[in-house]
Structure formats: C-alpha cells, structure tokens
Design goal:
The complex is a heterodimer of chains A (281) and B (399). Chain A is an all-alpha fold and 281 residues long. Helix content of chain A is 73%, strand content 0%. Chain A has one domain. The longest helix of chain A has 32 residues. Chain A is globular, with a radius of gyration of 21 Å. Chain A starts with 27 loop residues before the first helix and ends in a 6-residue tail after the last helix. The N terminus of chain A is likely disordered. With 399 residues, chain B is an alpha/beta fold. Chain B has two domains: 238 residues, Rossmann fold (3-Layer(aba) Sandwich); 66 residues, 2-Layer Sandwich (Alpha-Beta Plaits), CATH 3.30.70. In chain B, 33% of the residues lie in helices and 22% in strands. In chain B, α4 packs parallel to α6 and α12 packs across α13. The radius of gyration of chain B is 24 Å and the shape is elongated. Classes of the chains: A mainly alpha (281), B alpha/beta (399). The interface between A and B is large, with 53 and 64 residues.
C-alpha cells in the first residue's frame, strides 16, 4: 500500500509542506497477516475459553451420538455420516457467525473498534480481513472437532479437500454475512444477545433444509452448501461433478448474504457514527 | 513549546468572593462570543495540519435534542501542540470524534493536512490516529510489542520493516523491559504509555490524545509530558491533547482551545492566555492587625482571602504599583509589622475556571450533573497550589 492508494485516491495530496510525510511500508498482505495472527493470539490467550469451546463441541456431539444410539440403535448408526457432516457444518457456521459478531462487539468493549475504523485501508477491508481470520480459525477448530467425532464414531468420510474446502467456505460465508448483520446491530444497539442466540438454533433448520423437496429452500443461507457438503463428504462427489446450477446457487447465495450482511453492517455503523455510539459498549 | 510550569502561587477569591478579577480579554463565559483573535490565528485549510470549520452536532430530536457541538472552528499548524479544554459535557470528545470521522457532524468540515476527513477518510487516516480511550486503546491480552506490530500493520506498515522504530519507541517510553509482557500485567501508567506508543507505531503526523495522563502518578505524568514535548519537537508531530490535567496542558501545549457548552470560547496561546489574567496581586502577612485596622484597609483596598490567626493576618489584594505603595503607607501608618509579601500569579487552572465561569453545570446531555467536575478539579488544583505554595523568598518577585 502506498500513500496514494485507497478511497482517498481522488483526494488532493496534502499541501502543507512543513511536516514529515508518514512512510507506508506495508500493504494488504501485512494487514491480513496481522489480523489472522492477532485473532489466533487472542484465541490462545483466552485458553480456558478456547479449550471449553473445543470440549463442548465434542461433548455435545458425543451426547447426541451415544444418546441416539441408545434410543434408535442401528437406525441411528446408519445415518451417522449425515449427522457428522451436518454437525461439522453447524460448528463451522456457528464459529463464523458468532466469531465475527463477538469480535466486533469485543473490539467495542475493549476500546479498539474505533482504531480499526481509522485506518488507511478503510473499515471494510479491515472487517473483511477479520472475517477471513475467523473463517481460518473456525476451520482449524471445527477440523479438530471433526477428527474427534470420527474417532468417537469409528466412521470414515470422504475428505477431498479440493471439494470440501471451497464448498464449506462458500457455505459459511453466508453465515458470516449474518454475523456481520448481528455485529452491526450490536454496534448500534449494544445488547442483542437474545436475538443472536436464537439465530444460532435457526442454523440447524437451515443446514437440514430439504433442498431436494423444496427447491426454493436452496436459496436460504447454508442450505445449498449443506446439501452439497453432504454429497461431497458422504458420497465422494467431487467439485467438478456438481451441476453448474448447484455451484452457481452456492456462489450466488454466498455473495448475496455476505453482501447483504456487509451492506447492513455499513448502514448500522454509519448510523452509529451519526448517533455517536460507534465505540460505546 | 510552553515554558515550565509556574512555581508561584495562585490567586483565590474563595473567602470574600471579591478577589482579583482578571483583566484579560477572554472572560466571556457565556459561550456566545467567538474568540476575538480566532480569525487572526486561523490558517488556510491546506496550510493547517488540522482545519475545523463550522462543526456542529446535535444528538436527538425535538425536546430531547442535545447540541453537543455548535459552530466550532479552529485550526492547528503542523507541529503545533494544542490543548483542548472544557468541563465535562463541553463537547470536546464530540469535537475530536467529529474531526476523526467517528461521529458524523450535522454541519461543518474537518480537514487533516488539507484532506477532507469525511470525503476522503482513508486518505486522511494515513496521517492521523488517536488515543481515545486511554489505557483502553489496545489489546491487554497481547504483549506490548505485539500491540505495536498489530497497530502498525493495520495502519499500512510492514511490522518487520519498522521494528527498529518500535524499539526506539519502547526505549523512549521506558517499555523496553516490558516489550514481551502482556499489557494486562502492566500498571495503569504503563498501559497508558503502551496506548500512546501503539498510536505512534503506525507513523502518524497528527495524533489526538484524550486524557493521556489520566491515572498516572506524578512521576509517570512528568515523564510522559517530557516525552510528548520531545515527540512534537523531534518528530514534528501535531498533537491535540484533551486533558483535565491543567499542568499537562500548561507544560506541553503551545496553545489552548477552551470549549464550553459546545462552543469554542477561547483559542489562544498559553502564554497570552495567562498574560490576560496577570493582574498584579500580592499576598501579605502582617502582625498587629486589629478589627479597626482591618476595616479601614477593607474600605480603602480590594482585600480578598483574609485569614486571621492569633497574631497574624494574611490577605490578598489586587493592586497596581501605586496602589501597593499606598497600601504599604497605610500599613506603616497603622504601625503594622509586615511579616511577608508575596506576588501572586494565576495559572491555567484559574484561567480555566474564570473562562468557564467555574459553574458551567448545565443540563446538556447526560453530562449535566458532572459538568462542573473539571472546573471543580481546576479549582481544587488552584486552591491546593495556593495553600501549599512555595514560601516567600527574599528576592525576585517575592520578599
């Protein structure tokens, strides 16, 4: 990045000559690297929270697995692959959704949110970098939970990364969009945990939405990706084997919901600036 | 840069309410009149490091509406250090946040090095950063160095490329030994310094510092003041410092902008501001002052802060040279034993109290109840200085 980049490219260069011009030595790469590294550091520096997050992820799955096996026996075991994939996607989506939402609200409470607003990159790219960091971390934690789930159940899945990674990423981008909406509303209204928590459970319905029986359902967040991920991880379908329309819907919903989330985030932060509550908590 | 803080005592009108009245021209406390010298001090928008013109902001609507900032205009030259003062609720924070684009003003413009902050925020942010939350301005779970690296990176720096400068900053702020310590494990003063260092880590030419010495002990405050002075002198950074600590402002700042009730009521250099309040005044201690003599002196002179003990009477008097001689003649005529004579001079705390009326409590916003806190603080400072002022000496301004 140079001093001439960015939104201000159309701005006149400073004309007051009696000051030292700041020198920019970094760019978007350094921004992304720093944001990802900071996100991991903060995660690690709250070790109890991090460990509990992982433990609870595995614990709830184990509870479902052993409880379901006791109640439904073989019938449950037959559908275990679908459950694992669905649960994996749920932890991913939840991680992305609550990750960005909590991150924005934590920044406000720590007094650092406004500093992210005042950067030469602009707030948007910084929030985008945060989103990438959160998706990255969520993949790491959800992969760990997935590995433990497979060990617990003695199940194996098709894990073709070339297929699973892009499908899962595009799926949870929609969750990120919803997280941005909640993060923005949190900046504006501060306490929205009741609504935010309810939405977490709505994810279960979205992930298990019957997109084959109700074609319109595939346009809901997570639904299309969930269906595709099931096919990829259970049946071994590769990315290039999906119908182009399926991929188009997946990409389209990801872009749509991220776009809606980002637009609402932009509107809410602008409203927060108008009300003077951007950095309040 | 401002001179060292005055060691002289203060003038107080605490006892009689008829103490010295500043004869300076900046006593408008109503907030309705713009400072007389603002125009002469104003810089062109592209000459100033910070240029603010007609900034206004009202929160709420109808009967609930609160005008936080009204037609605020001032400019700051590159490398200048300006103090932004005002009682709680005066509009300082809203002004700063409006300049930075963190609050959207209803009217007016704010420019940093000629760049309109609201039109081209990203370009403007290449030059400016702010320490708005004191110690709450960085990540307490990260180490000092990690904070510097992170905030440098989000300001467009390659942290590795500026590592040497970060080392310098750590040395400069006495943080080198704590570089790898988590901020949460540091003292309040250290946290403040980390916040400041993290603002400077990204290389800025303009910095807003809100209460940079809040919560610091005397030694830490003095050190930080020295560093701020050095920053401005050596790096040429333009600083706007909002503080309740009058000594910081007087010590560090070239100029003071005082706000009250959302308006700028004073925009002047510290020296000129104090000069405006320099009435010749004396604090006199004498023996043998009985009621009759005191009554006579009260009648003939403008006595204030009269304090009588068993055998001594101390009072302050506003007097020019001729009046002072008449007073000493009168005291001689009454055969009084003169114990001491001190000159008394106002400082910024007292000037501030005078400017804002010292009772500027209002119902503006949620700060109404606390609106006088800063003035109270200033008064307390002034009173404290007065009581514990240095003893009279035989030379200089004191006898």
């Amino acid at each position: 990045m140079t001093t001439a980049e960015g939104e201000g490219g159309g701005a006149d260069a400073p004309s007051s000559s009696s000051f030292r011009e700041p020198v920019r030595t970094g760019g978007y790469y350094h921004l992304l690297k720093a944001v990802v590294y900071r996100d991991l550091l903060i995660w690690v520096r709250y070790p109890v929270n991090a460990a509990l997050g992982l433990f609870m992820g595995v614990f709830f799955f184990a509870l479902m697995f052993y409880g379901g096996t006791l109640v439904a026996g073989q019938a449950f075991s037959d559908s275990i692959e679908g459950l694992i994939v669905g649960y994996f996607l749920w932890t991913l989506s939840l991680g992305a959704y609550s990750g960005i939402m909590n991150d924005i609200q934590s920044e406000a409470s720590w007094g650092t949110l406004e500093r992210h607003f005042m950067t030469p990159f602009g707030f948007g790219p910084v929030v985008f970098a945060k989103s990438i960091a959160i998706v990255f971390r969520t993949f790491l934690t959800s992969a760990a939970v997935l590995a433990l789930m497979l060990v617990i159940t003695g199940t194996s899945l098709e894990l073709n990364l070339v297929t699973v990674l892009p499908v899962a990423t595009l799926t949870i981008i929609a969750a990120l969009g919803l997280g941005l909406v909640m993060g923005g509303l949190g900046v504006l209204y501060k306490r929205i945990s009741n609504v935010a928590n309810i939405l977490q459970f709505a994810f279960i319905g979205l992930i298990s939405a019957p997109v084959f029986d109700l074609p319109w359902a595939r346009f809901l967040p997570l639904a299309q990706g969930s269906a595709m991920l099931q096919r990829a991880m259970r049946d071994g379908v590769r990315l290039w084997e999906f119908e182009p329309t399926a991929i188009a819907v997946l990409v389209g919903t990801a872009v749509l919901y991220l776009g809606i989330g980002y637009a609402i985030f932009g509107l809410t932060t602008r409203r927060a600036r108008r009300l003077g509550v951007l950095g309040d908590y | 840069m401002a001179s060292e803080p005055s060691e002289t005592g203060q003038v107080s009108d605490s006892e009689t309410g008829t103490g010295q009245v500043p004869d300076g021209g900046h006593t408008d406390t109503g907030g309705a009149t713009a400072p007389t010298d603002r125009e002469s001090r104003a810089l062109a928008p592209d000459e100033a490091a910070i240029y603010v013109d007609g900034l206004s902001k009202t929160f709420g609507k109808g009967k609930e509406a609160v005008t936080a900032v009204e037609d605020v205009s001032f400019s700051v030259a590159p490398g200048e250090v300006v103090g932004l003062l005002g009682p709680n609720g005066a509009g300082k924070t809203t002004t700063i946040k409006s300049i930075l684009g963190l609050v959207l003003p209803d009217e007016g413009e704010a420019r940093v090095h000629g760049i309109d902050v609201h039109e081209h925020p990203r370009k403007a942010y290449e030059y400016v950063d702010a320490m708005l939350e004191g110690a709450r301005n960085d990540y307490w779970r990260l180490t000092v160095r990690e904070n510097l690296r992170y905030f440098a990176a989000i300001r467009g720096q390659n942290p590795d490329a500026v590592a040497d400068r970060h080392d310098e900053l750590l040395e400069q702020f006495d943080l080198a030994e704590q570089a790898d310590t988590a901020v949460r494990d540091l003292s309040r003063g250290m946290k403040q310094k980390v916040s400041l260092a993290s603002v400077l880590a990204g290389d800025v030419s303009v910095a807003f510092l809100d209460e940079p010495t809040l919560g610091l002990d005397v030694e830490s405050s003095l050190k930080l003041r020295k560093e701020l002075t050095r920053l401005a002198a050596e790096r040429g950074i333009t600083l706007v410092i909002s503080s309740h600590d009058m000594e910081v402002i007087e010590d560090v700042c070239d100029r003071v902008v005082i706000m009250n009730e959302g308006r700028v009521i004073v925009d002047d250099t510290v020296e000129e501001l104090l000069a405006g309040f320099e009435t010749q005044g004396y604090r006199i201690t004498a023996r043998g002052v009985d009621d009759a003599v005191l009554a006579d002196l009260r009648e003939r002179f403008d006595l204030a802060a009269v304090d009588r003990t068993s055998d001594r009477t101390r009072f302050e008097v506003a007097a020019d040279t001729a009046t002072f001689y008449r007073l000493t003649d009168a005291m001689e005529a009454h055969d009084l034993d003169l114990a001491s004579v001190e000159t008394v001079q106002p400082d910024l705390a007292e000037a501030f109290v005078e400017m804002t009326g010292g009772d500027s409590g209002d119902s503006r916003g949620g700060d109404g109840d606390a609106a006088t806190q800063m003035a109270d603080d200033a008064e307390a400072t002034a009173e404290g200085s007065r009581v514990s002022g240095p003893p009279a000496s035989d030379g200089g301004e004191r006898q």
